[in-house]
Amino acid sequence: MEGLRGECLSFFEKGSHYVDHVERVVALAKRLAEFEGADVEVVEAAAWLHDAGRAAEDLGECEDHAVESARLAPELLRRAGFPEEKIAAVVKCVERHRYSKGLKAETIEEAVLQDADRLDALGAIGIYRAIKIGLQAGKPFYDASIKPAEVYAGNSKTTINHFHEKLFKLPDSMNTETGKRFALQRIRIMREFVRELECEWEGVA
Asked: How many domains is the chain partitioned into structurally?
């Protein structure tokens, strides 16, 4: 997949998602695919491509990075010498990966990519990413007077509210048994971090 990786690198020079995120999703997706019996070649290719359109969305050049990534995928796959008969499966995985669209996975490969992408928002890496993106957006880190919304509307008012509104709910959205297991392991450190942070902030711990 080195050729495909090279094709994808230029898409991650700008925006909120960088190549380190994609590399982690690739590693997670391959591991989940092996546990769940998915086509590793399809899953790995889809993982490399799933955020190719993210920078375009961040820059206002497209409305939906999943749709844009899927549009870009066939040409990139062909240039990398990817098997023609598997391209359609990769495109579907990419098109359906996005959490906020609420699309249900229709194949095990789609399920694996969704889980791998969501897992990278959890655990120690998830804490780092949430803080980093919150700072980039200029959001308050924590404000006890701003209560978390019951339903995530796509734009939390504080970084810590983002944990309550979206991140803590991600384990329930996992498709595969392996994904659920990994998610529950990762969510524990996040809950402990937020619990300690809120106590220290209020001076009670």
From this structure: 2
Q: Is the CB of residue 64 less than 8 Å from the CB of residue 98?
A: yes
Residues 34 and 81 in one domain: yes
**Residues 30-62: tens digit of each pLDDT:** 999 999 999 999 999 999 999 888 877 777 787
Could you tell me if 205 and 199 are in contact, meaning their C-beta atoms sit under 8 angstroms apart?
A: yes
pTM: 0.90
- Distance of CA 174 to CAs 4, 99, 148, 160, 197, Å? 27, 10, 22, 22, 27
Domain that holds residue 60: 1-99
Q: Give strand ranges (E) for the chain.
A: none
Q: Of 50, 66, 99, which closes a domain? A: 99
